Amino acid sequence: MRFSLWIAIVVSALLALLGSVFVVREGHSAIVFRLGTIVRTDIGPGLHFKVPLVETSRVFDRRLQVIDSEPERYLTDDKQDVSVDFFALGRIENLQAFYRATGGDEEVAVQRLAPIIRDSLRNEINARTLQEVVSGDRTTVIGKQLDAINQGAGTLGVKIVDIRIKRIELPQDSNVVGSVYDQMRSQRLQVASQLRAEGVEQAQTIRAKADRDRAVLMAEAERDAQKMRGEGDAEATRVYAAAANKDPAFYAFQRSLEAYRASFTDGQSVIVLDRDDPFLQYMKSDR
Fold first, then answer.
1. Among 83, 56, 59, CA closest to 72
2. C-alpha span between 71 and 68 (Å, rounded)
3. What does R_g of the chain's alpha carbons equal in angstroms?
4. Are 163 and 88 a contacting pair, CB within 8 Å?
5. Distance (Å, whole) CA 236 – CA 242
6. Which of 12, 74, 162, 168 is geometrically suited to a Cys-Cys bond with 125, CB 3.0 to 4.6 A?
7. Could you tell me the sign of the dihedral formed by the alpha carbons of 156, 159, 165, 166, in that order?
């Protein structure tokens, strides 16, 4: 009988000891309740004690958590629909506020955080055009709204560290895709027209330069030709003059032969002259 009593006492002591000890792992925090009322909060990692049967504990993960959401449709500044898929990185900042706001349920926290993030992103995307949203810096879109998001998340005891946009798509059930293709086609046509205009301008410039160079070359060639003709005529005159001075009779004879050759080149010329005309002198005699 006495042995059974001791066994009961030992078992009760072990149960009491086990009920009074709880462990908080690294990256976690705990809250201790006494009859449903929070008496201690933000209890860090380690081995901790509580009053058995009177106090209870609950441990929460305070490491960064991924808060995912369904893609949301937004309207840009130029009235175009876009579908934005994003996720957030956050952690519990105020454990007591988190428990009071959500009852310690992470799903409830995610459900309440999602509209806060969506509304903040809507404000930023609504102020941008489709091109700015698609081709712009996505971190800029998020950075401007992160403080506003944390103001709302702070009421839940949560802090959002970062928000990342996974992808931005154009809804297939809207006319955005067609308008984007039309815009791209218009831009390509504009670029093509500009390139053609630049090509025509360059061609005209090249032609004008070529015509100018041709005119300059022709003028220089004509100048050089006239100079050479002048020099040739001067040399011929000098030679004729020298020949005339050396033998005037032969010079007169030579000049007459040249005149005959020029007059009767085609073989059909008819010249009517007096028989005593000096032009016919060398046809009668070479003297």
1. 83
2. 9
3. 55
4. yes
5. 10
6. 74
7. negative
| Amino acid identity at 183 | Q
- Paired tokens of 147: 């403080």
- DSSP codes of every residue in the chain: -HHHHHHHHHHHHHHHHHHTEEEE-TTEEEEEEETTEEEEEEE-SEEEE--TTTEEEEEEE-S-EEEE---EEEE-TTS-EEEEEEEEEEEES-HHHHHHHHTT-HHHHHHHHHHHHHHHHHHHHHTS-HHHHHHS-HHHHHHTTHHHHHHHHHTTTEEEEEEEEEEEE--TTSSHHHHHHHHHHHHHHHHHHHHHHHHHHHHHHHHHHHHHHHHHHHHHHHHHHHHHHHHHHHHHHHHHHHHHHH-HHHHHHHHHHHHHHHHTSSS-------TT-GGGHHHH---
In the predicted model, what is the mean pLDDT of residues 106-117? 86
Residue 287 has pLDDT above 70, yes or no: no
Tokens of 246: 């050396």
Report which residue type is found at 6: W
Structure-token pair, residue 30: 């705990």
CA distances to 42, 83, 139 from 150, rounded to whole Å, are: 20, 23, 16
- Residue among 58, 74, 80 nearest 120 (CA): 74
Name which residue leads in pLDDT, 38 or 251. Answer: 38
pTM: 0.52
Residue 23 tokens, joined: 């462990």
- Residue 136 has what pLDDT? 64
pLDDT at site 8: 56
The token pair that represents 234 in the structure block: 């001067």
List the structure tokens of 217: 């070359």
Kindly report the length of the chain.
Answer: 287
